[in-house]
């Protein structure tokens, strides 16, 4: 599968979706995409509406079903304790080569995705400069 065939997913019930990402407004929508599509970058919110499954339930399903994206996971929730719990859930079984960030996506990766660029080349280039 080539880079251009990868889907990038943004899970959030409120915030606008960045260009180049598919928006999932609920945990169920996000899990459907993870199960049915090849995902490159996944950005997760935690709070998804009163009484609704949250980002932690998505993180748990990712671990249990091995639904990790190929490139990276960002945790863009404004709830710091929730971000920490999602990190703790996802990190122990993180596959080699998949990056996990406990913060929102930086603008430069958003630009790469919006332009249809190669996210793997972006991460390789940034690893070389770190």
Short description:
InterPro entries: cREC_REC (IPR046909). With 130 residues, the chain is of the alpha/beta class. It contains five helices and five strands; from the N terminus they run E-E-H-E-H-E-H-E-H-H.
Structure, described:
This is Cyclic-phosphate processing receiver domain-containing protein. Residues 8-90 form the Cyclic-phosphate processing Receiver domain. It comes from Paenibacillus thermoaerophilus. Pfam families: cREC_REC (PF20274). The chain is an alpha/beta fold and 130 residues long. The chain has a single domain (3-129), classed as Response regulator (Rossmann fold, 3-Layer(aba) Sandwich), CATH 3.40.50. The protein is built from five helices and five strands. It has a five-stranded parallel β-sheet. The longest helix has 11 residues, at 55-65. The chain starts with 6 loop residues before the first strand and ends with a helix.
List the helices and strands and how they pair.
Blueprint: E1 7-11, E2 22-24, H1 27-36, E3 39-44, H2 55-65, E4 72-75, H3 80-90, E5 99-101, H4 107-114, H5 119-129
Parallel strand pairs: 1-2, 1-3, 3-4, 4-5
Give the key terms.
130 residues, alpha/beta, Rossmann fold, 5-stranded parallel beta sheet, 5 helices, 5 strands, 39% helix, globular, cREC_REC, Cyclic-phosphate processing receiver domain-containing protein
CATH-defined architecture: 3-Layer(aba) Sandwich
**Radius of gyration, CA atoms, in whole angstroms:** 14 Å
CATH third-level topology: Rossmann fold
Number of helices: 5
Class per helix and strand makeup: alpha/beta
- Provide the helix percentage: 25-40%
Secondary-structure element sequence? EEHEHEHEHH
User: What do we call the CATH homologous superfamily?
Assistant: Response regulator
- How many beta-strand runs? 5
Poorly predicted parts:
none
Strand order of the largest sheet: 2-1-3-4-5
Amino-to-carboxy terminus distance: 28 Å
Shape: globular
